[in-house]
Amino acid sequence: MYKISVVVATYNSGDFLNGFLDSIMSQSLGFEDIEVIFVDDASTDSYTLELLHNFDEMYSNVLAVFLDENSGFPGTGRNRGLDLASGEYVIFADHDDSYVENAFEVMYNEITKENADFLITNFYKVYENESVKEKTVFNRENIAVNSFREDLRLFDIAPSIWTKLFKKDFLTENNIRFLEGMLAEDLYVYVYALLKSERTVYLDDFYSYNYSIRDADGNKSTIHIRNKKYLASMVDGYFEIDNLLTKLNNEEFFSNIFKRHFVYWLTSLVASDISDTEKRELVAAINPLLRKQVNITSDFDERIYSPLTKPILAGDYDETVRKITKIKKSRARKDKIKSFFGLG
């Protein structure tokens, strides 16, 4: 049995795979104690396929699996990898990022010492010209809890699945799996794990992962994709998470979970260039969840979205879209002013 299984969903990822695997091979834990499972989502470029076949042949602890049809979302590949994982612990990585050299050693030692169901670390945001430490509400405070109720700030941590190491038996025994055919699949697993975990460790002061954020034409990270399919897929995932809370009798934590994610979704919608008709369809789709949030907190924890409260409660989708357009224009003016004075 390997100490850690690393599951990586890939799709036309050839430009990044060597760098990613190098970061795994250099782990101070020892590459021989790590299993790497690449699950390819029916890539169309020969370079990616050739690399994966080569990895599979060269290393006994590297497995490449190829899906027959493209699923379009990472959940399918991650679930397939989870089923195949033979490690005591499992982590899910993105193909275009990397781990720091001592990531797995620190994570493994801490999770075994605490006998935790899962462990969370912090990460670096890597831009073209700089690397920035992610800031959280914990302000470098580390914690270990027997229940999420002991520290609800855990819901304020980014759902980034690649910083979370799970005991494999914990996932399988609780049937915790990724959503397929939609997004917010990482948030779903994170929330499910928090609700079920009997020992959770968070290392806010340890930065284990290099999260690459790209925003060039033809080379954008998922965080910069704002088309209708992407935004609608997130809405589908949010409804599944809402259903999960009902299933587990944890509806009282709806706002704790969603308040920051609705702000993220609205920000993405505001920044998108999709048509007003598409925006209206998206607003209509997500409105039951937004209305529930507004009824709980009366705002979105960000003042700029306060004008949306009344039309959301009234179910006035046209007015909601008009307000969103106004917010976008206001932000564009502010960005223009900042750029003029060299502030942005």
What does this structure look like?
There is one protein chain. 45% of the residues lie in helices and 18% in strands. The chain is of the alpha/beta class and 344 residues long. Strands 1, 2, 3, 4, 5, 6, 7, 8, 9 and 10 form a 10-stranded mixed beta sheet that branches. A two-stranded antiparallel ribbon has the order 11-12. Helix 2 links the parallel strand 2 and strand 3. Helix 8 packs antiparallel against helix 9. The model has no long low-confidence stretch (mean pLDDT 93).
The CATH architecture of the largest domain comes to Alpha-Beta Complex
- Rg over CA atoms: 21 Å
Strand content: 15-25%
Q: What class do helices, strands and sheet pairing give? A: alpha/beta
Multimerization state: single chain
Give the beta-strand count. 12
Q: State the fourth-level CATH superfamily of the largest domain.
A: Spore Coat Polysaccharide Biosynthesis Protein SpsA, Chain A
* CATH topology annotation of the largest domain: Spore Coat Polysaccharide Biosynthesis Protein SpsA, Chain A
SSE pattern, N- to C-terminal: EHEHEHEEHEEEEHHEEEHHHHH
Number of helical elements: 11
Distance between the termini: 50 Å
Name the CATH class of the largest domain: Alpha Beta
Mean pLDDT, to the nearest integer, reads 93
Helix content: 40-55%
Shape: globular
Number of domains: 2
Largest sheet features: 10 strands, mixed
Low-pLDDT stretches are: none
